[in-house]
Structure formats: C-alpha cells, structure tokens
Amino acid sequence: LGYEPHKAMGPAHSMGYSYEKDFLPFAKNATTVSALSNLTAAFGGDQKYLLFNDFPFYAVPCQLAIRYPAAKFVAMRRRSCGEWADSALEQLFCGWMRAQCNTTRFRTTHPDVGFQTTRWFIDTFDRGLVDGMCRSTTATCLAHHAPLEREKTLDRLTNVCERHYERVRACVPPDRLLEVVISENASSVAGIAPFLGCSEADGAAAARQWNKQGRRGARPPNYQDRLVAAFSAGLARSTTLPRQTKNAHALARRPPRSPTSQNSR
Fold it and tell me: N or C: fewer beta carbons within 10 Å in the chain?
C-alpha cells in the first residue's frame, strides 16, 4: 500500500530508543519530548507514509492518538480474546518473555525493552500478572503441572485483551479506527485499503500478498508441541530441578476458546 513499515522501536535505531528514557515519559504524557513524540522526523520526514506495529505502539494507543491527530489505527484482532490469550501464553510468554523473567538489570536490548514494555502494558489492566507468571514458569507453561492455575492465568489474559480493545475504542475516534478480525483468506483485510485512502488496485495487491503470507499468522494457535519441547530442553539444562521435570511432556490438548464459551464464564 506504499507504507514504509517499522516493527518495534529497537535500540539499534540511531535514536538510541530506550524503555526508561523514551517509553515511560511518553506513556505518562503524550506531549513530552521523546523518540515516540517525533516519529515522522525520526523516520524520514513528511514525505513518507509510515506504518508502525508491535511494541511499544500497541501499549500506548491513546497517547499516540493524541500526539498524532491525523494518524489512523488498524486494530488486528483474533476471532476471540480467549484465542488471543492462548497465543499470548504459549507464544508470547512461554516462547519469549520467560527468558527475561530473572533479569535483575535490564539493558537496552530488543528482548529486554520488549519485556519491560509488555509487562507495563499488561500491568495497566492486571497489575502483577506477568510477575506472577514469572515466579512459576513451570506451572504457567506446562499444562499438566498446575492446570487450574494455568486456566486462571488464561482467564486473566482474556480480560486484558477485552479491556485493551475497550480502551482503544474509547480513545481513538471512530473515523480513525478500523478493527480487522484476521482470517485465513484475504476478506479480513479487504477494508484496509479504502480505510487508508488507497486505490482499488492497491487493495487487490494487498489481498494477494495476504494470501501468500498472511494465512500463517491467522491460523488458530497451535504452539503446544514446539514450545513444550523448547521448555523441556531448558529444564534439561538445569541442575536444580527434580529429575522428573527434565523429561519432555505433552501439553494437554485444549482447542482455542470460542466466543460462546468465553461469554459463558
């Protein structure tokens, strides 16, 4: 669609972006001077169409809506927040964030900044949730180990997702917000081109690109086998855990939550 994409705000960028110096001040006050308050100039000036995704952008939609009154927002959603919770637990936390759980001194590396930003984001809706998950990664990431505790964590993550979209709708004007429920066919992205003022031909090109690459990300989460193998490999390197926990385990199969079952809670 002619946009220059930028994923995340890693410190590798010449501006030296950091969680403490740039993210927190902007999160507290959208008018403060930081790397996030001058994105247009930082990434090439007014002559470019810029697209930003991943952290820290999903964490501060209200601040971005205030600071950039002409910007438009596309909220990519799964079919239900329960489905997002499954993905957030398996892929986001167990597959990535838990590696930073025991960090005592954060640096300006991409993983450290991402962990701090995501924990801050979740804390705005459920303070202490990530820290609690970090205190017991075995119970969080191995379904058979503490199924009730894991189920409560999934319920809390579902609530985080629901409240996030409620906040987005409350602070981003309707004419600047498009919600897209992702699916495995291009119908889910059909509204993006006209929403952004792009041509019909651009929309068709975007649909073709989605059919090539977008389906994989739209599929219901099914990370269990791969992630439990990685998690068990991590346990196998530990000399402090009981022997029986060093073996690979199969996570209990549980289909992604449907909106119906979610609403019945």
Answer: C
pTM exceeding 0.85: no
| Chain center to CA of 191 | 22
46 compared with 94, residue with greater pLDDT: 94
pLDDT for 103: 86
**Helix, strand and coil percent figures for the chain, each rounded to 5:** 55, 5, 35
At 154-195, the pLDDT tens digits run 999 999 999 999 999 999 999 999 998 887 667 777 888 888
Do 227 and 143 form a contact (C-beta atoms < 8 A)? no
Average pLDDT rounded to a whole number, residues 138-167 = 87
Angle among Cα 221, 260, 58 to the nearest 5 degrees reads 50
Task: Report the alpha-carbon distance of residue 245 to residue 117 in Å, rounded.
Answer: 31
3-state secondary structure 68-128: CCCCCEEEEECCCHHHHHHHHHHHHHHCCHHHHCCCCCCCCCHHHHHHHHHHHHHHCCCCC
Q: Are 189 and 180 in contact (CB under 8 A)?
A: yes
For CA atoms 166, 168, 173, 178, the dihedral sign is negative
- The set of residues, in sequence order, having a beta carbon less than 8 Å from that of 159 and lying 6+ positions away, is 81, 125, 126
